[in-house]
Amino acid sequence: MFFIGLLLCSAPVAGANNRQSNINYPSFMQGIDYGKGVTYVVGHNPPDSDSVCTAIAYASLKRQLGVNAEARIAGLPNAETTYALNYFGLREPLLLDDASGKNIILVDHNSFAQAVKGMEKANVLEIIDHHNLIGDVKTSAPVYYRNMPVGCTSTIVWLEYQEAQVPIIKEIAGMMLSAILSDTDNLQSSTTTDLDRQAVADLEKKAGIKNRNAYFLAMEEELAAYKGMSDKEIFYSDYKEFTINGISYGCATVVALTPEKRIALEKRLGDWIAKNYASQKMDMLFLKIHDLETYAATISCYGDGALECAVHVLGKADANRIALDKNMSRKKVVRLLQPQIANWAANNAKNKAA
């Protein structure tokens, strides 16, 4: 098992910088100079299953296309990701703690705020993502930038395997399958597309998963247990930061197995945020919690203007909490909030100047 993890996650291949002529390598990518060193494929920080599993899968594809690519992680993986890695016998990729001066492929994000330290000084060569374009990534040369409105970045990577006609081995299929199931809540999320469903149908066969629902539930049970984690660690376990019109805001996603556990987590984390909000140094904080039994979800709002912005686009509030449409993803929540926060910031600036 160790050998498999070493091979798939990080080991470069001989002659990796000479692209293989017998592989269907896209002609429009031949202008990318990967250089003689390693190109690191890395997701956002903190990492989730999409960012970790997709990095592994895409690095493997790039190596088969002749690029000396290695998967890296931006931080410690969560329990769900660890479960997937162990299930398919792969080791955890090494940590990339500083991207300065390195050749980089970004997956599952397009913003320095969510990236490894030093990314502003990195040589970003590619970006593979499924989020809206909020990033501030600047490059010195044209890059391969593929952004698609699908439920998971691994779905895009699966499509790239099809286009390049590269076979998908069991372990890599398992990584991509785990990522898609995680990001789409087992194809239940509002962001799920037919392409995600096609990818899952193919990948579950290649990964040898006979009961997809049972596998997904096993992953989520590991995640939702939050074993040995403090309230702060739970809040930041799946958290992303954004900035628009000078307003910084963060959105955390927490998963519970049942409605009862969701309600308990809402109170527990709500109490923690109320006591510690000032020390988090953000203008606004949002906490989205959903359960996997009913897929009911709520979002709690903290900070000046946060509830006002959320009510405008998400509906009526009960105290500082809003009930969301079932299966509404964080990506959709953030997409709805962004223009409203931008407008609020502009109006707030005008009022202060008046």
Descriptors:
single chain, 354 residues, alpha/beta, inorganic pyrophosphatase (n-terminal core), Diaminopimelate Epimerase, Chain A, domain 1, 11 helices, disordered N terminus
Can you give me a brief rundown of this structure?
40% of the residues lie in helices and 18% in strands. By secondary structure, it is α/β, with parallel strands linked by helices.
Structure description:
The termini are far apart. The N terminus is likely disordered. Strand 9 and strand 10 form a beta hairpin. The chain is built from eleven helices and twelve strands. Helix 2 runs antiparallel to helix 5, helix 3 packs across helix 7 and helix 5 runs antiparallel to helix 6. By secondary structure, the chain is an alpha/beta fold. The protein has a six-stranded parallel sheet with strand order 3-2-1-4-5-6. Strands 7-8-9-10-12-11 form a six-stranded mixed sheet, sandwiched between helices. The protein has two domains: 217 residues, Alpha-Beta Complex (inorganic pyrophosphatase (n-terminal core)), CATH 3.90.1640; 123 residues, DHHA2 domain (Diaminopimelate Epimerase, Chain A, domain 1, Roll).
Number of domains: 2
Count of helices? 11
The total beta strand count reads 12
What is the CATH topology classification name of the largest domain? Answer: inorganic pyrophosphatase (n-terminal core)
* Helix content estimate: 40-55%
**Cα Rg:** 20 Å
Strand % is 15-25%
Which helices and strands occur, and which strands form pairs?
Blueprint: H1 2-9, E1 39-42, H2 49-64, E2 69-73, H3 79-87, E3 94-95, E4 103-107, E5 123-129, E6 144-147, H4 153-164, H5 170-183, H6 194-207, H7 212-225, H8 231-235, E7 239-244, E8 247-256, H9 259-276, E9 284-291, E10 297-302, H10 306-314, E11 317-318, E12 321-324, H11 330-353
Parallel strand pairs: 1-2, 1-4, 2-3, 4-5, 5-6, 8-9
Antiparallel strand pairs: 7-8, 9-10, 10-12, 11-12
Helix pairs in contact: 2-4, 2-5, 3-5, 3-7, 4-5, 5-6, 10-11
